[in-house]
Structures are given as C-alpha cells and as structure tokens.
Design a protein that fits this description.
This protein is mostly beta strands. Helix content is 5%, strand content 34%.
Length: 534
C-alpha cells in the first residue's frame, strides 16, 4: 500500500515538474538554417504555455496564416517572436498568397472568419464554453497585406479574397494579449480585438506597445483603422501611428473599451485621430466594468495635416461618446486629456491640398460626456476656424494650456448647447519653440514659452507615478520623463547636436560598404557614417 502511495506522489511531482516548469517548454525555431523552414510546419493548436516560436528574418516573406487558442499563464505565456535577419530586418508575414496550413483544418469557420486575418485568436471547438485563450505575446514581426483585393488559399485548397474587415491580427476573444515592437503595413485593420455580451466572450487586458503602423485602412471606407479595440482594459502606448493609406476614411485609433489608456504615442490623424465610442457588442457587461467612465489620453503627439496625396486628416480630432445612436450606452464619463501636443496644419482654402473651413478639437454627442484638458500644447498653423467643441459636451480647461490664438467654444455652424469652464490658465503666442517643425519633431527648444507653464492638479498627482512618468524619444519610443513642469508631450531635455533630421517619419539610415542602406543607431557623429565597432 505504501509503495502505491509513493508511486502516486512521485507521478504527481513528475507531472508538476514537466507541465508547470518552463524548463520543459518548447522553443520552435523557424527560418533559414533552422529546425523548421516554414510556418506551416508548426502545429499551432498544440502550443502550450511557456512555448516560444522564434521566427527568423529572411529575404522573402513567410506566407502562412496562423490560428491560436492557447490557454497559457502569466508566468508562462505563449510567445510568438521575430528574430531580425540581415541588416536588422523584421521577419515578414504577408497575407498576399498566404495559405491556411493543414494543422488548422477545422479551426477556422470558412464562412465567417477564415478571410478575416493573418493571425486569428479565438475559442476553438476543442475548448469548453467559458474557456478563453490567455497570455499570448506577439513581438518583433512585420505583418502586411491582409487586405481586401489580396488573396489566400483556404483550408479546402480554394483561392479566396480577404474580407473588407480583414486584420493583420484579429482577436475574437483573448485575456492578456501583448503586441509589441511589431510593424503593420498595408492591412485593412492592423489590430482588431472583439468582445461580446457575456463574461465568457469578454476580452480583457490588451497591451499594444512600441509598434509602427503605416498605410493601413481601406480606400473609401470609414470602417477600418490602425487599431480597433473592444475589451476591458486597453493600453496603447509608445506607438508610431503613421498616416492611413490614400482615400481611407478610418481613424488612427478606434476604441469601444473600458479602462482605456492611450499614452505617449505619435499619432498621424485619420478622419479622427482618436475615436472613443460605445461598446456596441458588449455593452451589458462593459458599462459596468471598472473605469468605463474614465479614459486617459496622456503625453501624445497628435498631428493633423491637410495633404495633397488623398490621405485622410482630421478636422474633428478627438471623438468621445458613441456612434450607434443608442445613447444610453454612450461613454457618459470623463476623458482626461493631459500633456498632449496637438499640431494642426489645416487651411480654409488651399489650391494644393484639401481644405476645411472649421476644425473642432473635441466632439461629444451628448452633454453627459466631459473632457478635462490640462497642460497641453495646441498649435494651429493654418487659418481653419478652430473651436474647442462642436455642439455638445462639457469641457473643463484646467492647469496650463498653450494656444497660438484664442479659439471659440463651439463650432460656428452649430447652435452651441454644451458648456466650457476655464479653471486654469491659457497661454497665447505665435512662437512655441519646436525643435524642428518641418520634420515633425515637436520636442521643446530651450527658449520655448511652454517650459515651466504646467500646473499641478489633483489628477496629475494621482497619475504621476503611473501614466505621466514617460515620454517619446526621437525614434518615437518610450523614455523616462523626469518632471511635469513643461506643457505638452515632451519635457525639455538638453540634447547633443544632431547632424540632420529624418525626412522619412522617424527613421535614419546610412550606407554600408556595399552601398546598401543599414540602420543608423544615433546622430552623434558628423558626416554620412557613424562609428561602428568591427
């Protein structure tokens, strides 16, 4: 009897060691000179917590669709990670001519979701009701070409076109998802996260950090965006969000979530820069989630320029409310808009570029929505008529805010029904002291009138150690913010002289000896080359 008990104990200890210890997790290496040559060799549905798939960069894209349903743990997540190849290139996964691998036969619903994404995360038929994919990290990969008009081969061998709603990463259901240090190019949506009206179908805890977005969206459509989220707990930080593609009418960021934090991003506006609306698919739960009534937009650089190349720009910058006309599920809370730098270059008439007679900073749909704006820089270069609000909403202008000139409370073509309360100080001037306006470098110069103009507020004290402790660096990535004395997204930091500014939206390059471009890590050395150790 004793020996049987001992055997059982031994077996339990063995199982604990094997299945709970990350030392027994598996790493799958995919790429040139690796164990696996292609992504279709991975059994995606058998991946477990602690497993890592390393995708090595190569000269040609990978063309395999991926499905995930892993229930991992916080201490042993499932990680899908890119390893840069020659010249620091990201591994690329392209949706154009991609194939659904045999290991995913039956995972996709051929009618409803197979045409929707390159990476699709959902509860599969192998999982019990109430179980959710959990704790997945995706990092260091370029995702591109998941776009209507491009085609893929489905699980039955049929060539099909992507849906209009297609996304590079589509999470139908997920708890604890991190997407970081990735590049998203030429997709419909870049990232899409969904929730529905039961706890079993509610996505939670999404982190989108340090990614670059470029040329996403669908021409002549309002429904595709760089980031589109509906979850409880969404944090979007440190991203470079470049303009959407030509003729796209989407937003840079669209969100239907609770507890949303958008911080320290560089955002080139779409039709909206940020579109914060009602949780149309999950309202019965989302309205009761903690912090549904509080949204934070902090430390961002937001740029809206009318353009000559048919790319979208915003004359309605920040939308806070809803878009379904079901008004009882609208936001009806407070948007805290703190330490942001807004740069507007929009004219009432322009022979070379599109024009807008009027521009509103905040759009609210009822008077039950409120914006608390403090310690921002609002710089309007063009002659568009600028207003704080359009028709509805409550605005408190607190702390210190810098403007080039006074602006009206409501739009000049509306009967204003909202309310504006000025409890802080407004600073005006024609000179703001940006480091290099031509190249979208909005760091402050030493003589900037925005220095030492910020005012301490209760909400600032509350957030100082959490949301206000970082800022962007010159490569649009996060670095510490040491103080909160200066207005806008940047505190003044004395920097070493730089030889030149980037003309390609935050990227520098230099020549290698074979006359091909390689990354330039810094701008401290004079001339065409920086010193590189050999």
């Amino acid at each position: 009897m004793f020996s049987k008990i001992l055997n059982i104990i031994t077996l339990c200890v063995f199982c604990h060691i094997v299945f709970a210890n990350p030392l027994y997790a598996t790493t799958y290496n995919v790429g040139p000179n690796q164990q696996f040559k292609e992504l279709d060799e991975i059994d995606w549905l058998s991946l477990k917590g602690g497993d890592t798939v390393l995708i090595f960069g190569r000269d040609i894209p990978y063309r395999t669709k991926i499905g995930l349903h892993t229930m991992a743990s916080e201490d042993q997540p499932l990680t899908i990670k890119g390893v840069r190849g020659r010249n620091g290139k990201f591994p690329v996964i392209s949706g154009q001519n991609a194939t659904t691998p045999k290991s995913l036969n039956g995972f996709f619903n051929a009618k409803w979701d197979e045409a929707n994404a390159l990476i699709f995360i959902k509860r599969s038929s192998q999982m019990k009701w109430g179980e959710k994919p959990q704790n997945i990290i995706i990092e260091g990969i370029e995702f591109r070409d998941a776009l209507i008009g491009n085609s893929f081969t489905d699980q039955f061998g049929n060539k099909r076109e992507y849906s209009k709603s297609s996304s590079a990463i589509w999470a139908n259901l997920i708890e604890n998802l991190t997407i970081q240090n990735c590049l998203f190019v030429n997709n419909g949506n870049a990232i899409f996260v969904l929730s529905k009206d039961s706890e079993a179908d509610l996505s939670r805890n999404i982190l989108i950090k340090n990614n670059t977005f470029s040329d996403n969206g669908v021409a002549n459509s309002y429904f595709q965006h760089n980031i589109y989220t509906q979850a409880s707990g969404v944090r979007i930080e440190g991203n470079l969000i470049k303009p959407l593609k030509q003729l796209s009418q989407g937003a840079a960021i669209k969100d239907r979530s609770a507890g949303t934090v958008i911080k320290n991003n560089k955002i080139y506006a779409g039709t909206y820069a940020i579109d914060l609306v009602d949780p149309e698919d999950s309202y019965s739960l989302m309205l009761n989630e903690p912090d549904f009534d509080k949204t934070y937009v902090v430390g961002n650089v937001i740029i809206s320029k009318s353009r000559s190349d048919d790319r979208p720009f915003a004359s309605r910058l920040i939308h806070y409310g809803g878009d379904t006309t079901v008004y009882n599920i609208y936001r009806k809370g407070t948007l805290f808009f703190l330490y942001n730098t807004l740069y507007l270059d929009i004219n009432q008439s322009d022979n070379q570029r599109k024009s807008r007679w009027r521009t509103a900073l905040f759009i609210m749909d009822t008077n039950e929505e409120k914006v608390f704006a403090a310690n921002n820089i609002i710089y309007s270069k063009g002659d568009t008529t600028l207003s704080w609000l359009s028709k509805f909403g409550q605005l408190e202008i607190a702390g210190g805010n810098w403007l080039k000139h006074p602006i009206t409370e409501g739009a000049d073509n509306q009967v204003f029904a909202g309310a504006v309360e000025k409890t802080g100080k407004l600073h005006y001037g024609t000179y703001i002291g940006f480091e290099n306006e031509q190249y979208n470098d909005f760091r402050l110069t030493s003589d900037s009138p925005a220095r030492y103009k910020a005012q301490a507020l209760p909400v600032v004290f509350e957030l100082e150690g959490t949301l206000l402790n970082e800022q962007l660096n010159t490569k649009s990535r996060l670095m510490p913010r040491e103080s909160l004395f200066d207005l806008g997204a940047y505190e003044y930091i004395q920097a070493p002289p730089r030889a030149q500014h980037s003309t390609d939206l935050d990227q520098q390059q230099q020549l290698m000896t074979s006359r091909k471009l390689i990354p330039r890590a810094n701008l401290l050395d004079l001339g065409a080359y920086e010193h590189t150790a050999r």
